[in-house]
Design a protein that fits this description.
The chain is of the alpha/beta class. It has a single domain (about 5-230), classed as Rossmann fold (3-Layer(aba) Sandwich), CATH 3.40.50. It is built from eight helices and eight strands, in the order H-H-E-H-E-H-E-H-E-H-E-E-H-H-E-E. It has an eight-stranded mixed sheet with strand order 3-2-1-4-5-6-7-8, sandwiched between helices. Helix 3 runs parallel beside helix 8. It starts with a helix and ends in a 14-residue tail after the last strand. The structure holds zinc ion.
């Protein structure tokens, strides 16, 4: 696989970072974004701008007015439209070189079972712990890196799961936290966490830098601080334990 003259120009500033080889790796890669809301929208924009070969987005919801403070691919004129349609339309305009697949379906085990094995990396853009736990389990089963982020108000957290190497989500959060809906969110909070997810995804694909593994990174917007909490695999984890 090679790059066209237009691709060389579009990605010039990042090719200076990781070379043509890195850009070709991005072009060959497939990323699944589960949920196209506060995290998924900015993550999709930057992944598509960076020239990922194929980006698959999944969501079943329609755009509501109260989404617009943070779900930046959806605009006022999109209210009532499926989020997937609204997102795919803009992402294709941003970068026609990327294959963008929109799937308008409820995210459940069956759907994830059919999608996760065929992608290289999964971005968690979910707002439900129940589905997140299923996604974590399926990523571990198929050994696909999962880049988890969660947010609340002015706080966020990032965890990079590399199955077989790092703790999985359930090693660290053994039981589903309670679902609180709707919860407060400053729009920029998922923006910050989504950018961290994108940086980690691009690092894993291009093999530059060191992945942010074996730690949770906790963001506090009130004090503008990032804290790192080391994490270990749980030998009794029901999802990734070696004892099974
Ligand atoms: Zn685990």
């Amino acid at each position: 696989m090679s790059l066209t003259p237009l691709e060389l120009e579009r990605y010039d500033r990042q090719i200076r970072l990781f070379g043509i080889e890195g850009q070709v790796r991005l072009k060959k890669s497939k990323v699944l974004i589960a949920g196209i809301g506060g995290l998924g929208c900015p993550a999709a924009l930057y992944l598509v701008a960076a020239g990922i070969g194929e980006v698959i987005i999944v969501d079943s919801e329609t755009v509501e007015l109260s989404n617009l403070n943070r779900q930046i691919l959806h605009w006022t004129s999109d209210i009532g439209r499926p989020k997937v349609d609204s997102a795919v339309e803009k992402l294709r305009i941003l970068n026609p070189d990327v294959r963008i697949v929109g799937i308008k379906r409820v995210i459940d085990e069956e759907l994830l079972e059919s999608l996760v094995p065929n992608v290289d990396i999964v971005i968690d853009g979910l707002d439900s712990w129940k589905i997140r736990f299923i996604l974590n389990r399926i990523c571990v089963r198929y050994k696909k890196p999962l880049i988890h982020a969660g947010i609340h108000g002015m706080y966020g957290q990032l965890l990079v799961v590399i199955p077989g190497i790092t703790p999985c989500l359930q090693c660290i959060i053994p039981r589903e936290p309670p679902e609180i809906k709707p919860f407060p969110v400053l729009g920029a909070t998922p923006g910050i966490l989504a950018m961290m997810q994108v940086v980690e995804a691009i690092k894993l694909i291009t093999k530059i830098g060191e992945p942010a593994i074996n730690k949770i990174i906790v963001y506090d917007g009130y004090t503008m601080t990032f804290r790192e909490v080391p994490v270990n695999r749980n030998p009794n984890c029901p999802v990734c334990s070696l004892k099974q």
